[in-house]
Amino acid sequence: MRDRSNIVDLALAFAATFVITLAVWPRESPRQIVRCHLTDQGWKTYSIAIDDPSLDELKRKVRTWSMPESHPEYVTAKWQKEVAEFYEKSQPARAQNDSVPRPVKRADRRPMTATISDTVTTASYETEIGDPTDVIQQAAYAEPIESIDAIAEQPETSPVDAKYWSTVKASAVASMEAVQQRSANVPVVFEQVTPASWPQLAFHFAFLLGIAAACGYMHWLRHAPLRTGTSFGEQPIGVLARIGTFSGAIVVAMLSAAAVWL
């Protein structure tokens, strides 16, 4: 019975020291579990502290990767697609085939029309055509009316141009789809965030301190054994110090456990 009580005391001394050491030891910050796909090694799992600046940089790169608009290839392909659609839908300007009014000969040389305002006076006059050959020479440098009608009758785009812009549009659409597919398959996956915990060194150190406390308590128990048949107040000072230290360690361990796990 006496040996059993001593074993219990040693176990309590070890447990109390172990818990107190973990309570005093500073815990690490929560960590983010990240899975990355490497080209030559496949998927790898990493654990990064949430306060690590590299984690924020990695998240920013993932957001940029996930947005197709942030890729220069996508922006260029979209611009090419819009240009191709514009030229496919565009048509040349048609000239107005309006008849040119001929000048009306009048007997007098007075102004045909005239308006007077506060600041500007406008007037128009008509003149007679002298030699008809002068008119013919001037008309030689002008575009004939028939050529304007021919331009108006041309198709919107030539077959060659239509084929070219359709090819440009198809290539741009293919490039945009490739970027969108690549943006959807991000090679980085953010998993759960592990809560704050102690490093392995803390557990190793707490275990060693627990063993040392149990051994020290065992030696202290041998040097200051409890006197049987004697009241508590009549026990030696060494016994009272041992009991007081043991009881205080148990109370502190219980408070530390409550602070850590609650």
Q: Can you characterise this structure?
A:
Helices cover 56% and strands 12% of the residues. It contains eight helices and five strands; from the N terminus they run αββααββαααβαα. It has helices spanning 2-24, 53-66, 72-89, 132-139, 145-152, 159-184, 200-223, 237-261, and strands spanning 31-38, 42-49, 113-116, 121-124, 188-194. The strands form two sheets. It has a three-stranded antiparallel sheet, with helices on one face. A hairpin with a 4-residue loop joins β3 and β4 (121-124). It is rod-shaped.
Topology overview:
Blueprint lengths: L1 H23 L6 E8 L3 E8 L3 H14 L5 H18 L23 E4 L4 E4 L7 H8 L5 H8 L6 H26 L3 E7 L5 H24 L13 H25 L1
Antiparallel strand pairs: 1-2, 1-5, 3-4
Helix pairs in contact: 1-7, 1-8, 3-6, 7-8
